[in-house]
Amino acid sequence: MELLSGGDMLVRALQDEGVDLIFGYPGGSALHIYDAIFRQKSIKHVLVRHEQGATHAADGYARATGNTGVVLVTSGPGATNAITGIATAYMDSIPMVVISGQVPSEKIGEDAFQETDMVGCSRPIVKHSFLVKKAEDIPAVVKKAFYIAATGRPGPVVIDIPKDVTNPVDRYPYQYPEKLRMRSYTPAGKGHAGQIRKAVALLLSAKRPVIYAGGGVVQGDGSELLTELAQRLNFPVTNTLMGLGAYPGTDKRFLGMLGMHGTFEANTAMHHADVILAVGARFDDRVTNTPNKFCPGAKVIHIDVDPASISKTITADVPIVGTVQSVLGEMLEMLKSSKEMPDQSAIVDWWRQIDDWRERHGLYTAPRYRTDGDMIMPQEVISAVHQITGGDAFVTSDVGQHQMFAAQYYLFDKPRRWINSGGLGTMGFGLPAALGVKMAHPGSEVVCVTGEGSIQMCIQELSTATQYNLPVKILCLNNQALGMVKQWQEMQYEGRLSNSVYEESLPDFIALAEAYGHLGMKIEHRDELHGKLAEAFAIKDRTVFIDVYVDPTEHVYPMQVMPSGSMRDMWLSKTERT
Amino acid sequence: MRRIISVLMENEPGALSRVVGLFSQRGYNIESLTVAPTEDATLSRLTLTTVGDDHKIEQITKNLNKLIDVVKLVDLTEGSHIERELLLVKVRATGAQRDEVKRSVDIFRGQIVDVTSNMYTVQVSGTSEKLDAFLQALGEHTIMETVRSGVSGIARGEKVLSI
Description:
Chain A is an alpha/beta fold. Chain A contains 21 helices and 22 strands.
């Protein structure tokens, strides 16, 4: 058997796991590992400018491909800088393996230079973590880490490795385990057949059904089955923020997103539904609004791979634990073999009702924003980009108003195209995530929709884009304030804009982009919007920072009434309420 | 309602902190907690008592099961079970008090395990209620120090928690 040092073992194990890309940043405790990376060819390492960027880039890569993202950082500040990105991946169930260097074993606990208890710091935000005690354990730990990260409900796994464990002098026999069995970890597979039968019967009895699909459908590669099911039954579908693209956004059965900034038709249909089929969604508080007012007349079928997500906030009438693929597959089989269909006249009536809601206040039946004047409206920027990119770009976003406008107006037809921090709501996610996506899909259009607030939280990654020649588009909806904070302050704090404005301190983003070697473009007038955007998107070999000055007074609507509103209680504009 | 949850988990460093962390992270209560290796040295058995309605207990057991280190668990209070807690208490015992304390110890089937001219150290085991009752019987003014082990439990009959 081949003898390898701990550092070489780690790299070899990553190769054996099929890893070809790592995002990271070197430092003292990780130097043996970095040397092992230098001495091989098959794994590419991307040097970011801040460890948070590494985690978001790996996250973006994972979301866009379904593969596990890999991060390598050093101990202490390297590890703690990665925390926000790990938490982001944890909240959105993204498979990620984060390898952190640690101070040498004998120094652990002595407050050594750049020592931090990474296993402890990351404990509440990881699916699992390992502290490697000896080099011989590395292959098995790597195997377990990747298995845990990617199976069941995916999530981030931390491997913390003290420096002495990777030292180049001591060598050990290397063998990568072929099989893995963990007595304490058996991820859910197929759903309970009896429960699935009950669910199918309930679907067939539905008169006002809604399919509510979340990120689990995207992560679990269940989009095709979901689409087939919805189309077979002619049921309306709404997606969560995380689920956008799980069902084609331009299909007539798509009601738009639901929840806090969901469409009028999606939220109202949910409220009046008699049967809700929840797939890979977790009844997040940004979806349900007030739980005890949630969908009063609905029977709930809840499919999820994670039993702890079922009946957590909303009690499921028919809970089904299993992978989205296997459960939806079995449902379809049952429906096909029984040939039964729901009451067609009831479904037709239901669609008539939904179409009426769409006509009244829907986002896609008429512009629900100002269409006159010189001021560029953020919604029309997203629509224009949708048109220019043929609806087929990978769109990452940061957090705030721009995120909601992108979610509402870039109608995603495919899964894994919409990449945003839904659960944690991490500003600074968009740019590094876009770089990760671009690494995975170099030939595809990648757009980071951001704001002048969010982009400054990880702007240093513009330098990474330069080094690795990653031509992404950065679309900054510049409203010269922390727009979503300002919206809440205007709606709930009588307009007291506490620390949400910059007082003339914003940088010249064009000059900044150019300083990093990129192109910058400023768009200030409505009549130049389409032309300049087309010009920017025609550039394929450079990173382009498109700074669009949008109406700073615009709010995101609909917005559910909080606290204590039901799903259908919404502000539809600054003056209009349901 | 008070529940006794018994958990078999990998005897790995950090496993206990994951359980304890879960409780603080999700705002669940732990009233008592005991943990020790089992006859199989690769496994630890942890017993905790907590309070919550059915919904909360369901969430607790689901989230405990989600921890990678947790192999198996059972809510002992769902079936008939035996629970025991050990109490050691130092009691001031001088003059007439000495007989009085001795009588209480006998009634509760405890043992005096250490003696000086001024005090007894008493060991009592049983359910938590029994230990509470014993302490009450002693009366606050005679108690110098108490230590309790937390609850351990096991199901009655042939049902076992093992892998």
